[in-house]
Design goal:
heterodimer, A: five-stranded antiparallel sheet, 11 strands, 0% helix, globular, B: six-stranded mixed sheet
């Protein structure tokens, strides 16, 4: 299967920016996704980016995609304590199997007041 | 509208017993996925169903695991002869049919926390 990797932990202070990184192996990926999981809940889609884009901004969230390095990042501006959660990146499988998703192990973001 | 629901929310069972976990996807969603999330781990793909096609079972960890999707809607994940290593949160998700050049959002249920004692 595909390999999607993330660092396990990130700790920031309230008001700072958070940057969560992800690397993937499949160069033919079409869409890459960021999901958020709050304690005791399922995953919720935050944002996604199509592979022909370099950047996507949505309010406090900025997604950067470096296709050459197969590197995806999620930047959260003005991080709040409510942003504390686990963040997963995911990609769809290669051509002809767009229904199969591969998730990273998740990055646990801790926001200190 | 209603989201993806799962039942039970928590299940404690003795080693060796069989368990059934249920998932009700969003109405109209053709794709349904099961994942397992062990403590401190990421999501492990188990199985997915797409319409009337044969399910992709490539992620099932052993033959003790099976899943059905009746009538293209509700799905049941069955674990036979449970082992302690089966303890995890089992997440279900559903989506519309994913196509090329169209983003595909998975909607997740809250999960079933399974504890095998």
């Amino acid at each position: 299967g595909e390999d999607v990797e993330q660092s396990l932990f990130l700790s920031v202070r309230e008001g700072d920016s958070s940057v969560i990184n992800c690397t993937y192996t499949d160069s033919s990926s079409t869409y890459l996704y960021w999901y958020k999981q709050e304690p005791g809940a399922g995953l919720q889609l935050l944002t996604y980016i199509f592979s022909n884009m370099d950047m996507k901004q949505d309010q406090r969230l900025t997604v950067l995609l470096n296709k050459k390095d197969k590197h995806l990042s999620l930047r959260i501006a003005d991080t709040q304590t409510g942003d504390s959660a686990i963040y997963f990146c995911a990609e769809t499988a290669p051509l002809y199997n767009f229904n199969k998703f591969y998730f990273g192990s998740g990055t646990k973001l801790n926001v200190k007041p | 509208g209603a989201g993806v629901s799962q039942s039970p929310s928590n299940k404690v069972t003795e080693k060796g017993k069989d368990v059934e976990l249920r998932c009700d996807p969003i109405s109209g969603h053709t794709a349904l996925y099961w994942y397992r999330q062990s403590l401190g781990q990421g999501l492990e793909f188990l199985i997915y169903f797409q319409g009337n096609s044969a399910p992709d079972k490539s992620g099932l960890p052993s033959d003790r695991f099976s899943a059905e999707r009746t009538g293209g809607s509700v799905s049941t994940l069955t674990i036979q002869r449970t082992q302690q290593e089966d303890s995890a949160v089992y997440l279900c998700a559903s989506s519309l049919t994913c196509r090329e050049r169209v983003s595909c959002e998975q909607y997740f249920g809250p999960g079933t926390r399974l504890t095998v004692t």
